[in-house]
Amino acid sequence: MKNLNGTAQPARCPVALALALFSVFPLNAAAQSQWGLAPATTVNATQINFAGHEWVVIGNEHKDIYTNDGAYGGGLTQPSGSVTLLLKSDGTANLEAGGGFGGVLPFRDNGNTCAGSYAGTCNTDPTEYNDSTLQNRMEEIANALPGKELGVINTRDLAPITGAYASNLADLNENDGINGAVVADQKLWALSYPEWEAVNDKGVRSYPSSWWLRSPDNIFDHLALAGRSGGDYYYYYFVDYPAFVVRPAFNLNLNPVLFTAESSRVAGAGKSAVTAGGGYQSAAQPTTGAMKFTFLDPGIATPTLTLKSTPLAFDFVGAPTGVNRYVSGFLYNSTSNAGFYAKYADTSSSSTGSFNAAGTFADGSYTLHIFSEEANGDLYSDFASPSVEFTFDVVSGSVQNLTLTTTGAARSIAD
What we know:
Number of helices: 5
Strand content: 25-35%
Helix content: under 10%
Largest sheet: 14 strands, mixed
Number of strands: 25
Mean pLDDT: 81
């Protein structure tokens, strides 16, 4: 057999631990911190599966997309401990109508007052983003997202440029590049022209159809900007032109992330393919393909555990039941800086049961988190209760020094 770092390991010796049976009660949610390494992302490369769709990272701690990495000023800076994501193109038109994203639409429906070669007299401030068709569609899409995933999206206030229109396109960086009133508490939003420029990657900006930006044209009050489908340049077009699509962006809060794992649509691969009782799988962040996150949800009840006479064997009660519910574990080897994930028991129909968290472990120092989990599938985030935490050492294949971590203690993993 192989141990958890993939190297050959002799058969595991019987573990001699003089431990009496004891009960372990749920820990305080405030004590939880990231269980593995903090998520590491690369702008224009890292893909994240979230809320039923694939997204690409366009901003992180190294590049503040809100301010174009310092090249443009103004606007709210990207929140600390977050990434900014843009809906990823899969190279087909499926995303345009799928997932409630709504197909083609105008920037603002002005009752065709710009119709007839799109050269008529438009309504007052037709490029105002607030209450535009585009802004309203973003809110509709946000409201249709799974509630827990919506809850880990940071809101953003979009501030207007000074005056009705900028004197040149570069001036659209002022504040958040919109015309009209402040638009507060936005979960999803269209990119501004400066943000579109800041992406600076034709492949990332490409999309099956051209897509609206939130910025007005710098000269004409009835034109708004849109990114071309090929990703190489932008349009300015009449606001009631009903032929461009919605492409949402948002800022994701990474502070509640407990660990990161591979997310794959390939059968038998990725975190979602792990089965109850199927043993440990690496929870290393993938170097290619998409990743998914497991977030802390203090509203999920932590199971009450009883350690049996066999070390790392437990009885449990009080686990939440329902679809996609499990008692699961995350194992961190601080010696090799590696994490591993397992589903111990399926609790879809029963809140009680037993499991064995043992494995064939490489020598090293370990922290084991046992928790209730809501596992939602490959394209969605998973959610975990506060955990019961143990530490132990493995010496020559033998588990030693098994210790229940003091209630309320927090452990942070360095970047």
